[in-house]
UniProtKB/TrEMBL annotation:
The keyword Magnesium does not apply. GO terms for molecular function: endonuclease activity. The keyword tRNA processing does not apply. It comes from the Bacteria. Keywords: Endonuclease, Hydrolase, Nuclease. This is ATP-dependent endonuclease. It comes from Amedibacterium intestinale.
Amino acid sequence: MYISKIKIKNYRLLIDAELEVDAKTTLIVGRNNTAKTSCLACIENVLNGRPFSFDDYPLVKRKTLYEIIASFMSKEISFESLCEQLEPISIEFLVDYSLEDSEDNLGALSPFIIDVDIDTTTALIRVEFRLKPDEKVLWKTLEESYYQNGVFAPSDEARDVISTNFSKLFELVIYAVNPKNPKETQIKKHKELEELFPFHIIPAERLLGEDGTQNSSLSSLISEFFEMNEEELDPNVAEKVKELRAIVENANKNVQKQSDSILSSLVNDSVGFGYPNGEELQLGVTTQLSIDDQIKNQTQLSYTAGTSNECLPSTYNGLGYKNLIKMEFLLAAFAKKIEKCGNACIPLLFIEEPESHMHPQMQHAFAEYLEAFLGKITSVGIQTLLTSHSAHVANTMAFSKIRYAQKTKEGVIYRNLNSFEQENPDNSDFIRKYLTLTKCDLFFADKAILVEGASERLLIPDMIDKCDKSGDFSSQKYKLPAQYYTLIEIGGAYAYKFIPFIEFLGIPCLILTDIDSVSGQKGKNGQVYYKSVPVSCGETTSNETLKWWVRKNKGLSYNDKAQINLADIISMSSGDKTRGKCHIEFQTKENELCGHSLEEAIRNVNRSHYGLSDSPTEDDLEFSGKCKTDFALKLIYECTDYNIPAYIKSGLIWLNDQKVLE
């Protein structure tokens, strides 16, 4: 059995969010401030049985909350109506037990199965932080701030009183719900929920003891072996721990006996005031030595060179390795804890930003082998939820395990990349391979720019800076340079494959591509082949993305073989160049000429720098260099005041003006 879906309502940015959960590992990715950590925090809060604070209640819902409470205090609505209208913070767990045998003992899930239909294989659990059913306490708490001399006159402090007393006026209530009849519920105890979902969280802020003090968390993890019962220990280490404990116990006894004798003699010899005399009790000393305490408090990790057996302290190793080692210890400890439950519960593991301090290759290895590692240390199925800002972690995971957190004006929603994969089988495999190979950070960007090649990748950041300094972005308070955009080098032959994915993620995207004009010519065998020609001589384009775009505008299918005329591309209006959140730009006519590529377009608008006359021909614009990267770098360093081609400037201004939230 496992959690298949989690629904969160009215918690921070999660106004009405539904998270589909993988049976083993679920990775939540997204830009900053998209409620990745909030999702785990909400679940942790509920499983710990802690009350929510007023800060957890969504800002967009507070006005309604104040109005409803005011209606009750003015006696316009009853207390029962107040309880019905106030929207609680809530979370639902949908548990799938379809893989369990009908005669199996469902263990800790049993109290939450209230549907008698034997064909039902899901259990629904809802936890609400709702108003306590005590009208007198509510009235007593709020009356003073809503009434002056017996007259209804809400004071300015009324909202503060609600905020301050929020956790006192509301309470956690746990329901078992009939999935086929949501109105049929049973109230359950928190202990029952706790037994069903044992959980462990590895937070993003992990103290690694790098300062060399005795607070090293790694050392404390090792010393915890002394606190565990023998039956709790892993069989692989139990014998060694028992051997160490025996040594420590014998050493304790010997040291204790010798130190007591020596110190007692020392004390008696030192006392010279006639007390005690021989008839009275004699002084002695009993020391409370404990070698095992010393081991617990003084144990630290060290690193040994394999060839020389020389040791270095833990502080001399990198934080990335220490982070990985600590997580391995924590995972092993959690696995051992849940072994007692067997398969009678659903263990949950939360890991926030596992990539902390890790270099890219280590991040990739962690993401790739996490499930295998958990399978190695325990036979109990653990459902893991991770959050990450790492493209290396995200691009290692299968699409089926990734949930993209998208922020909208209505709150955060979680998009299941598995659904995109199923809806776009032709594109998803390509995108998956491309993301894996390039490690692009599309999941974490506010906006995206798809470009042709290396020249654009080098020049676009500089061009964005130039546009900003020249005031082209002044229409927006937060300009493009201050936004987190990702630059993806994809080329006109494949950019169109990314468009459905960009639309799925819901982020604004600018596509800068080449017009790639070609003309058909007959070969010796009579077949027509297309040759690159100046734009003025072009019949069509070899650019697959431009072809795809025009077909979409005309309502044609992708497989339509009709030739796309170059005139249809050149004549596109600004509106024709925009589809949803995607906008495409390509070379346009400037100074009576139209370049065939980025390099030609740059040469056209920077003629003097390239030694061209005032009236060059299209042939004069042709880029004859061998390296486009050198062309871009020379332009940046040799001509700081170069002009930006109009199509690029137009595209960047469009992207600057786009709102991230819709």
